[in-house]
Design goal:
Layout: H1 8-13, H2 22-43, E1 50-54, H3 60-69, E2 74-79, H4 82-95, E3 101-105, E4 118-124, H5 133-143, E5 144-156, H6 163-166, H7 175-186, H8 198-208, E6 214-225, H9 230-236, H10 246-250, H11 256-270, E7 274-287
Parallel strand pairs: 1-2, 1-4, 2-3, 4-5
Antiparallel strand pairs: 5-7, 6-7
The structure holds S-adenosylmethionine (SAM).
């Protein structure tokens, strides 16, 4: 686990907002709710159904599904990590809910459920943390009932704006060297974060058995003025509790002083400037 991120619950509550202003935290929160709502529209959950939230984290999808079912069906909060289930359980207890839910500790590559027992499988930003995506997607297919739906969202990080695109060779000493390494890192076939896109996901879904899966690309553009401390947070904050930060990734290619000088130069160049960022994502809507 990373030194500055104890577990997934801490990452979801704190690290994912690192470097953001209070207004940006508010915007991110609203955006997460909007993504959740699109997944749930696709899922079209009925009161009696069994709903599986895979990689539930802090229960973003599961709690809304529970609300939509009014606790009349079964929402399964599932995650590979116990801290996430403990946190969701704590909220359930605080709400005083007595039925309509279950907790399931398992990785999504081996879901601890029999074949064909789930009506709706929900997921947000989980495959992006799994290097080999096919076993996970095939496992989701296995637990779905015939006619059951897999509805999900995943960011396509590979096509995000890169640092070299928003800086300038005149102001960054080793611009070309860092550009080359950044491109290499973003195209690493072993890195769960960027080893996939809409096309590979569609192939994974078809191999699993989903006929005509919908994989809809959404381009998200944002524009803001870079604030002090933001750049440091981008480089030092890990993308998940068990993955190295961008600074640590660069240190596999350059010594620490060179990486820190680069971060400082990026910071000097960007703070106070308005930047425009592009990040792609996909919504998956697949029926068994
Ligand atoms: C970015 S968080 C998303 C959490 C939640 N779905 C949401 O939308 O807020 C990723 C989640 O995936 C879980 N996770 C990571 N690897 C997993 C795996 N192999 N199987 C199941 N869950 C996993 C983590 O514990 C974490 O809760």
């Amino acid at each position: 686990m990373s030194e500055i991120c104890a577990n997934w619950t801490a990452w979801l509550k704190k690290n994912r907002f690192a470097g953001q202003t209070p207004e940006m935290v508010e915007q991110t929160t609203r955006w997460l709710e909007a993504v959740r709502d699109v997944i749930l529209v696709y899922a079209d959950i009925k009161p009696y159904e069994t709903v599986l939230d895979i990689g539930t984290g802090t229960g973003l999808l599961a709690f809304k599904a529970l609300e939509q079912q009014d606790c009349s069906g079964k929402v399964i909060f599932s995650d590979k990590f116990q801290d996430c289930l403990d946190d969701c359980k704590r909220i359930i207890d605080e709400l005083g809910l007595l039925h309509g839910y279950e907790f399931l500790l398992c990785p999504c590559e081996h879901i601890a459920l029999p074949d064909a027992t789930v009506d709706k499988a929900l997921m947000r930003s989980v495959l992006v943390h799994i290097a080999n995506k096919q076993p996970a997607i095939s496992e989701i297919y296995r637990v779905l009932k015939p006619g059951g739906k897999y509805c999900a969202f995943e960011p396509i990080i590979r096509s995000n704006t890169r640092y070299w695109e928003i800086t300038h060779p005149t102001f960054i000493s080793k611009y070309q060297d860092f550009k080359k390494v950044e491109n290499e890192l973003m195209e690493n076939p072993l890195d769960s974060l960027c080893n996939f896109d809409e096309n590979t996901l569609k192939t994974n879904l078809e191999i699993a058995g989903f006929s005509v899966p919908e994989v809809k690309v959404q381009q998200i553009n944002s524009k803001y003025v870079v604030q002090p401390n933001m750049v440091e947070a981008w480089f030092k904050n890990p993308p998940s509790p068990d993955q190295p930060s961008t600074r640590e990734r660069f240190m596999k290619y350059f010594d620490e002083a060179t990486v820190d000088k680069y971060i400082q130069e990026v910071d000097n160049y960007l703070v106070g400037r308005e930047i425009q960022l592009r990040s792609n994502a996909v919504f998956i809507n697949a029926t068994k």
